[in-house]
Amino acid sequence: MITILHNPRCSKSRQGLALLENSGKDFEVVKYLDEPISEEKMKHIISLLEIKPIDLIRKNEAIWKSDYRNKSLTDGEIIKAMVAHPKLIERPIVINGRKAVVGRPPEHILNII
Questions:
Q1: Residue 10 is a catalytic residue
Q2: CA distance 25 to 90
Q3: Own/partner pairs for 13-20, CB < 8 Å, 24+ apart?
Q4: pTM of the model
Q5: Domains in the chain: how many in total?
Q6: Is omega for the bond preceding 53 within 30 degrees of 0, making it cis?
Q7: What pairs with residue 28 in β-bridges?
Q8: What is the DSSP letter of 92?
Q9: Residue of 32, 47, 82, 109 with fewest CB within 10 Å of its CB?
Q10: Which residues span the domain enclosing 95?
Q11: For residues 92 and 8, what is the distance between their CA atoms, to the nearest angstrom?
Q12: How far apart are CA 61 and CA 22, in angstroms?
């Protein structure tokens, strides 16, 4: 099953959702701002993306700038920050089995569906 971690207020996330809708494939929408992601799930997603946690952070978010920027954080601390403040998570994220991509640009999604 394909899953999209979606924020309806984000244009790139809406574009990613449209790509999935047009694909004709079955998928699940997780509105991650409404449905919190556990720390374990976040670790799993990051491992599927094959990136460092810091690479999934939206560094222009106010909460990042005020509470985390310029601090020396471990990967675990960064993951805890994303779980506590899901607005920090880059979006959309599409997961298909053992593969995942950040849909920036949205066309990246086509690589795994």
A1: yes
A2: 23
A3: 13/91, 13/92, 13/103, 15/103, 15/106, 16/92, 16/94, 16/103, 16/106, 16/109, 17/92, 18/106, 19/103, 19/106, 19/107, 19/109, 19/110, 19/113, 20/94, 20/109, 20/113
A4: 0.94
A5: 1
A6: no
A7: 3
A8: -
A9: 47
A10: 2-111
A11: 10
A12: 30
The amino acid present at 86, given as its one-letter code, is: P
Residue-wise pLDDT tens for the chain (113 aa)?
999 999 999 999 999 999 999 999 999 999 999 998 999 999 999 999 999 999 999 999 999 999 999 999 999 999 999 999 999 999 999 999 999 999 999 999 999 99
- What's at 73, amino acid-wise? L
Q: What is the CATH number of the domain that holds 35?
A: 3.40.30.10
Q: Which of 2, 4, 5, 10 is catalytic?
A: 10
Q: How far apart are alpha carbons 104 and 11 in whole angstroms?
A: 11
For residue 98, with 0-12 CB atoms within 10 Å meaning exposed, 13-18 middle and 19 or more buried, which class applies? exposed
Instruction: Confirm if 92 and 10 have CB atoms less than 8 A apart.
Output: yes
Please state the φ and ψ torsions of residue 9, each to the nearest 5 degrees.
Answer: -85, -5
